[in-house]
Automatic annotation (TrEMBL):
Protein name: Uncharacterized protein
Lineage: Eukaryota, Fungi, Dikarya, Ascomycota, Pezizomycotina
InterPro entries: DUF4246 (IPR025340), DUF4246_C (IPR049192), DUF4246_N (IPR049207)
Domain DUF4246, first and last residues per copy: 14-77, 98-555
PANTHER family given in the database record: FE2OG DIOXYGENASE DOMAIN-CONTAINING PROTEIN, IFI3P
Amino acid sequence: MEPEAVIEAGRIMLPGFGLPLNHRPEDHFPDAVNDWEQHWPHTNRERCMVAFMQDVTLEENWDQRVFQETAIATWKHDVVGKDWRRAGGIRYGDFTDAMFECCIEELQAKARLYQETGIVSILDIEVRITRSDRVISSDMRSFLQKAARNIERTSLRKIDWSSGKETTLTQDLESTSSARNIVVNLIDPAMYPLVYGRSRVLPAKEIDLQDCLDHITQGITVQMPDKDEMQKYVDGIYYTLFAGKSQWLPCNVEFPDGINAKITSYVNNLHPKDHRNFYPVLENIITKVMPMWNLVYSTVYKETMHCEKRIECYQAGWKYPITPPYDPLNIRDDLMSGLIDDDEWQRRTNIWLRNFRVIDKPEPRSKEERAYHIHDSSVTPEAMANYTNILGKADGIQVIVKMRAMYLTPENPVCDLRNEFCLDGALNEHIVATAVYFFDDENVTDSRVSFQARFQGLNFEEDCSFETGDLRPLDEIFGLRNKTPSLQKVGFATMREGLMLAYPNVVQQKESAFQLKDSTRPGHRKVLTLHLVDPRVKILSTANVPPQQADWWAAEFSTSEGQLKELPKEVVDMVVENVSDFPIPKQEAKRMRDELLLERSDLQNKIREILRSYKVSLDWSGDDMDHGSSSEGEDDDWL
């Protein structure tokens, strides 16, 4: 970078432009690579409890039924006899009366909060993952559906990025029986991102929605970062984990009245004039999702909304269901008559006792203990609406917007994204939380969004004692297996039209396949995704980077005041596609996108490799870290 430019008065100083790419202040939200981990693995029983409560909160009028004895009795009958490995993927899962009592008490507390806020924590095991079917009204959902259709109509060509093939998107796509199963990115942050060595940045000013188009082609080219700026120090090793080629561009959002969101810079790939009616819809959605983001953010950041454990386990061992008899095999007479000696009597008795014992699985805290800890006591409507913690000293937030549509047909009735567990974005984007809104379903089944988190897998004996060499209790209580990755499934959230999901970007997530309900008819699913950038780490945004789309530039210059106004459309198109420097033609942007996605895929693979290198250590022998390798024979139910 130019030393003289860095110190120029009034120059913007942000990561990748005036500051090293990997720069971040001391006060920041942790990342999942090596800044954050669960303090401890959670018991299989607690995971069963969370899964049960997730299911209940999907039911209609659940917030009223949790106070009705008939509904409670039905739930208890169903959950106690459930096959948890088959239904929830939890080995050795079970459900006791004490667990059920604790769940109902907690569900009633969740219901009271839901009735005031429309938000419920569904997967709250050290982190909080929240869901809502109320924060976005049905009218607002209808506006969003219309806006999405408008984007589809005004886009002449779309890309099936999952297959890399181009297809024409027409209004009768879904009624065409021969149409492909297709994934269309309607708003794609991977198109026209900030590209190091290619994009232009305004060095000393910011632009807004009104004047952004006037600044196309202005600015100075952002330089490629040095190699050491792309690295992160992880347990004694430097890894290249920052995307050295690109950064997704967020829009800037402010809260003029302290409550309602106002987008102040253009959303990348959402034209500020052609789609001006979409901006108020996005602002309304961001306003409504802020309390959800605040809750998931504050649970992790300094644990200001602490999440209590339901079940403590200080010793993993065995117990006897009842006090065993002194002579369980009735061979005392043989001992007294000399047919067997003391050693033989003890050997046979010990075998019987080992077969008689069971794993001592801990129960939830007692009602008195729960009253003392007051589960979720810090989570109130007032706390969720107070953005002091999430904003810090920032006067607003930055949001990366993505919207996609998935079309299924009778010939291709299943949408399988084939994605692995991953974090959102690259470390460059400093994404701390994500909101996903399923806003338009037609003839498709529910989806599952699954989550997993890394936990502290070393020095287990400091908090939970167990007999050396006897690892079965740890397996049945926690699902722990020696030398396997210290990753634990948090659970999954069921999603369908009308549901909003928010989660912190310290847990890995992946989305399951879904399919047509009626295989004789086509169907679709449309999803809006909003990524929140850490307000404590401001990054380059659309306020700093003017629009890069050559077709936007051509449209501006083809107006009555523009330089291309006298030229036929065919000539204008030729000019646009043959721009040699800037702005960027669409075909070049597509080629760049494919190349940039390969880099991001490599980074995600490297992060997965690092997270899987942390191992559960139960024998304290050998190296507890094994960067780049994974254990053989790992159980899919566990990972």
